[in-house]
Amino acid sequence: MLRFCTSLERLLERITGLAGFIGCTAMVIMIALIFGNMLSRHAFGLGAVWAQELEWYLLSVMAMMGIAYAMKFDDHVRVDILSSRFSPVGMMWLNLVTALLVALPCALLIIQYSLPFAETSFHRGEGSPNSSGLPWRWIPKALVVVGFVFVATESVRQALENGRRLVQHYAGRA
Fold first, then answer.
1. Closest Cα partner for 27 from 58, 70, 69?
2. N or C end of the chain, less CB within 10 A?
3. Rounded to a whole number, what is the distance in angstroms from the first to the last CA of the chain?
4. What is the Rg, in whole angstroms, of the alpha carbon atoms belonging to the chain?
């Protein structure tokens, strides 16, 4: 059973790594796009609404993929006033409980409420209010769903990791 949990933990870690790769790629593309937009606007007096909207789409990819990736490396915001007083075993318990009772339920709740929001936008064919803007307004809305699927995945991975570490800790004491 422990071997299965470890294999599942590694699979979920690769999935979260994929989120980081996608977010990083979106960031590189966005930086190049912003530079190109700035250069064309200031050097040539040209600008494109679709390119500016694409920056927002890429920003939403970056943000939504980055949440799970930040969780993976424990680079997210945390209230350390209490957790700094815990022992390493206490931190494992805190991380396990937080993953199962806070992060996972919140992610599932956000998925539940944002999915109809994205679906409605898709079925209506919602697009930019600008005539030369992008026609796929549902994409950033759907990224909320995708991003929190990655958060749920990372929450399960953290629960498995901390649960495994706790089992190993207590098995070593017996």
1. 58
2. C
3. 19
4. 20
* Cα–Cα distance measured from residue 54 to residue 30, given in angstroms and rounded to the nearest whole number: 8
Report the distance separating Cα 33 and Cα 110, nearest Å: 30
Distance between CA 114 and CA 90 in Å, rounded? 34
Tracing tokens 């991380």 back to the chain, one arrives at 95
Beta carbons within 8 Å of 18's beta carbon, 6+ residues apart: none
Please determine, for residue 140, whether its predicted confidence score (pLDDT) is greater than 70: yes
**3-state class of 81 per DSSP?**
helix
Tokens 């991975």 belong to which residue? 157
Angle, CA of 171, 173 and 174, to the nearest 5°? 70
With a cut of 90, say whether residue 8 has pLDDT above it.
yes
What one-letter code names the amino acid at 4? F
Residue 165 phi, psi (nearest 5): -65, -35
Q: For residue 47, give the 3-state DSSP assignment.
A: coil
